[in-house]
């Protein structure tokens, strides 16, 4: 067990050091979500107006953009596995007295730390975008971000365990990340879309991570939305499943189960491949 803990610490620490040393990566990783927020928010805010009293389109979309930042960073954390394999560093790690499951978990923990740092940077920018924050909201939000990021890192590592080139990994990720992002309710309430689209969105595990973050922001944060607030006959917060509206705890349970499955598959696939 000590080997697992040591591997997690060493690999996670290295991932954080790499992120800090690559300033271009640090800036570009949250520049894309920020552009989405500014362009889509400015473009649609006047057109759509208030979704419910006290919540305009930017306030609705901001938690989704935070989830999008975490999604992109977590899934692309698998790229470091491919990079290490291409340049031979992975072989050096594997001949070291480190547990292979610890190496995978260390990559996931390192990716989570990086994603959390970027999420906090997005929080710092919130007041400039007209989104109010409170310390209580931040304290509630951090464990949600950690769990969402850890689960999605497992997905990125699972894909990376099968890829042999950075180009191949990035092509697969582009095909995977955009459906996950656009069908997760980042830009619209999943309860108010056509039935076929709602079914696909509710089968997407990222939807529950987005919903949990949004419920923390709008349901218990600085912007208080009544629990019964409706849009087009559907609740604004909480994904509705068979007439039941998901709470934050239920959303997190779905995300945690998804993370356990893809994380276990990633460890198994990595041990078989290397």
Question: What's the quick description here?
Answer:
The protein has 274 residues and is mainly α. The chain has eleven helices and six strands.
Protein traits:
mainly alpha, two-stranded antiparallel ribbon, 73% helix, 5% strand
| Helix content bin | over 70%
Give the strand tally. Answer: 6
Largest sheet: 2 strands, antiparallel
- Number of helical stretches of at least 4 residues: 11
End-to-end Cα distance: 20 Å
The rounded Rg comes to 19 Å
Mean pLDDT: 79
One letter per element, helices H and strands E, the order comes to HHEEHHHHHHHHEEEEH
Q: What coarse outline follows from CA principal-axis ratios? A: globular
- Oligomeric nature of the chains: single chain
Structural class: mainly alpha
The low-confidence runs, each spanning 5 or more residues with pLDDT under 50, are none
Strand order of the largest sheet: 1-2
Beta-strand residue fraction: under 5%
Word description of this protein:
73% of the residues lie in helices and 5% in strands. It is mainly alpha-helical and 274 residues long. The longest helix is centred in the first third of the chain and has 26 residues, at 23-48. The strands form three sheets. It has a two-stranded antiparallel ribbon with strand order 1-2.
